[in-house]
Amino acid sequence: MIRNVHLCKRLQLRQLSTYNFDTLFDTNHIDLPRLPIPDLEDTLQRYEQSIKPLCFSEDELTHTRTMINNFRTSGGLDLQHQLIANDQAQASSGTFPHFYFEDLWDDAYLAARCPNPVNINPTFFMPTEVKPGTQTARAAEMLSTAARWLIHAKNGQLANDGLDMSRLGRIMGTARLPGKDVDSLEYYASTSRHVVVQTKGGLFHRVNILTEDGTQALSIPTIETALNQVVHDSTAKTTNEQKQIPGVGILTSLERPAWFEARQELISSDNAARTNAKSLQTIDSALLMVALDDLDTSDVTTYCQSGLHGVDQQTRSDRWWDKMQLIVDPSGRVGWQFEHSFSDGLSWNRWLGEMWHGMGRMETPSNWIYGHLPLASDEKTTTNPTELKWEINDSMTETMKQADDTLRIEMGEGLDTVATLFDGFGKAEMKSMGYSPDAFVQMSYQLAYANLHDGQAAATYEACSTAKHFHGRTETIRSCSEEARSFVQGFRTNTLGNEEKKQLLMAAAQKQSTLSKQAAGGMGVDRHLMALGALARKKGDAATLGMFDDPLYG
Asked: Suppose 116 and one of 120, 134, 246, 440 were both cysteines; which one would form an S-S bond, judging by CB atoms 3.0 to 4.6 Å apart?
């Protein structure tokens, strides 16, 4: 996905939070409500309504209604009571999980065995000035500002904007580690001082971005000098033979069990100095990963692909899909790829927005509540980059080559990706016509899909933040509503006038806004049914499982 960073804040006065950075994740210091469990009948009714526009026949709808009613009458209410009782017990303990399906949601990410690229990790791009020769300067600016933000957060200066802040402390310094059956997370934001820079398709360098005592960010010139040294050393060291072999980073693109096995082999085949183990630990504990790409393209589709999965051996290898990563090309274009298991878009947007403001890239809005980042150190210090070493045997070299081929074929060649920039009009014009921008765009998607697929509808997943609740993450907005289908069908006919079509669009947009508000309040369909389905499968009751085995549910 491609997103620009936009901040639209509601509060007029800066409200300082009172928190301890090390306990920010587990402490509800702004007293947000717990995510509610919806009423069972309300969820079943919303679910049935969402299924209607997807049914191809009345028989199909009748079958699904039968499955829903069987669930309603054969044990659904018992499962609901059990879900509520479990949640009440969890709430009384004051410990994880902090909402009724949080453990299931974490497992959905960490137990997923698919590769991280595309399946898990999204890509952001920032509207930076394009200027050849600015790669290290732009990267240094972003890194120094990220370090300033971290000091800001650790000093208790993050503002309370009324939304969940628990995940902000884990954006930097978090590592996802592969496991055979389930992955795990490790956290280093409180102690780490460095980032790891990937270059030339396989070289890694440690670069500090905080002072030795961790109390200040290093300056832009200090970090830029170190990055220039990294580029110089990498260029001098890279041989034509090395360019033919993918780097260790490509291993993180494998399916998770395969990456787990490869990581274990890296450690078990290590030398006496534990070279590989030390390099892995330096990467795991880094505040961020950084890719200084060789690719320099103005083609937006190619640039999008480079962030999503890489477009050549260098961009595929110089990624570490288990951590947050800054990506900068030779002309200073800035992108990010985010490991998604422990945080969501709302946290990323806030983080990037505060950094963007701290870099002076935006005027301070009148309703800005987030304060100002502390200045970087003005001492004339140096930070010497340190190259990470690897002991790679023939077996591991072959594994890396296979991983590169797999990513190239399955993601690079196996996905149809086209990115486009639309500047015909924007949210201001949508609002002036009385439409929510989200609703207007979602209905555009519905119409476009129908035009491409002979009028057919598709189940549509739009994520909505539930961050008004403690630890809130996301809920699904089922955008393909009956009103959306009526709009699409009416727009595709020649029998309706423009005014009638406009009325259909307004009705569909209003329904979309209603669904969005319900989802943001925790009153969606998918998360509630996911939790009930997990209990039903644990119980093994065929009568209640029928609804979840219905093809239209999956």
From this structure: 120
Rounded Cα distance between 7 and 30, Å, is 21
Is-contact 119 414, C-beta < 8 A?
no
Please answer whether residues 171 and 98 qualify as being in contact, where contact means their C-beta atoms are separated by less than 8 angstroms: no
* Residue 474 near residue 464, CB atoms below 8 Å: yes
Residue 180 is assigned to a structural domain of this protein: yes
Q: How many CB atoms lie within 10 A of CB 466?
A: 26
Q: Do 92 and 159 reside in the same domain of the chain?
A: no
Contact 174, 320 (CB under 8 A): no
- Count of helix runs (H) and strand runs (E) in the chain: 19, 11
10 within a domain of the structure (yes/no): no
Q: For 227-242, how does the pLDDT look when each residue is reduced to its tens digit (9 = 90+)?
A: 999 999 999 988 766 6
- Shared-domain flag, residues 372 and 436: no
- In this structure, the answer to whether residues 172 and 249 fall within a common structural domain is yes
| Structural domain boundaries enclosing 287 | 123-413
The 3-state secondary structure of 253-279, one letter per residue: HCCHHHHHHHHHHHHHCCCCCCHHHHH
Q: Are 543 and 469 in contact (CB under 8 A)?
A: no
Contacts of 248 (CB under 8 A, 6+ apart): 202, 204, 266, 279, 317, 390, 392, 400
pTM attached to this predicted model: 0.94
Number of structural domains in the chain: 2
Q: Are residues 294 and 180 in the same domain?
A: yes
2 burial (CB, 10 Å; 0-12 / 13-18 / 19+) is middle
